[in-house]
Amino acid sequence: MFTDAVTLLALPFAASLLLVAIHTYLGIQVLARGVIFVDLALAQVAALGATVAFMLGHAVASAATFGYSLAFTFAAALVLASTRAWSARIPQEALIGVLYVVAAAAAFLLVDKAPQGTEHIRQILTGNILTAQQTKDWQSGKLDFIAVIAEDRVSAAERGAFSEFSPGEHFVYKNTDPLVLGLMIGAATGVSYAEWVQRTIFDPAGVQGPGWISQNPRGQAHADGGLRLRMEDWARLAWWVKQSSGQPDCFGGYLRDASRTQIARKPARVFAGYGFLIWTDNTTAPDTYWALGYGGQRIAWSHRNDRMLIAFSNVEDWMADLYALFRDWSALR
Fold first, then answer.
1. Would you say 49 and 72 are in contact if contact means Cβ atoms under 8 Å apart?
2. Are 171 and 216 in contact (CB under 8 A)?
3. What pLDDT was estimated at residue 115?
4. What are the extents of the domains in the chain?
5. Nearest Cα to 174, choosing from 214, 120, 107?
6. Could you write out the DSSP letters of every residue in 20-63?
7. More confident residue, 312 or 221
8. What gap in Å lies between CA 52 and CA 69, rounded to an integer?
9. What is the pLDDT of residues 5-45, one digit of tens each?
10. Residue 315 per-residue DSSP state
């Protein structure tokens, strides 16, 4: 466990030292040039670039996302440099402030279209130094998921205390929840997460083509992501979920509860409720429940009938039309 902790913290510690050195030098240059807060404005522009990349379907830590951030930052720096000649009439600090506010507002407006918008806004505002990781550690199995989750989070889960709140009391969208769930499945069943999914989901659902479940060599995986199937097998899985929700057994009861609002989301953006890893109370398409992926993947079911919708896209900006389409189609008799 100590080795895993060192692996987890080594790069963030090095990044912290590097940031101190860089910011000390750059801070002196900022003060010398009288462009106070320009670093905050450019950082917010970089976050806007990353947000645009995310909304276009790129992974958060991908090269494309970093490219978007760098391009947006260079463009903003060029704008600020070209406006220095106006400083006699308009203070440079005013332009920096305007740039910061515009970039922040634009980022909020963009992520507001995503169901996980609150989480993305939090990441934009605060960041996380622990994300300074090399993904090869995860791929090679050197990085243990248990080490990624805080000690108190795992120890609490082992005691059966999964949250400081009572069920239905408070909504927080956190990636640590499905991580803990994946660890619990492995501990309870004694098999790898992938093997458990194959036995309990893929085989009963009649999945026929090859699939892919993301997990490291230790058998640890996200319990709500990292899953790849052919389109026809997604349709089989969606139909199996719908049929199983009508069964009187334990799994059927779970699906019925999962597809109903267990906690309300305030403010209600795209979805006003959340079940068990299922989004509910779509503000455009009532009486529907949705499984969401990144970049425009959607599987939707209707409580009114057996109609389902499966959509795969690499962009999010047309989801409003998709919700309206499913609303109208599920309402037809």
1. yes
2. no
3. 57
4. 2-131, 144-162+169-226, 230-333
5. 120
6. HHHHHHHHHHHHHHT-TTHHHHHHHHHHHHHHHHHHTT--TTSH
7. 312
8. 9
9. 666 677 778 888 888 888 788 778 777 776 677 878 888 89
10. -
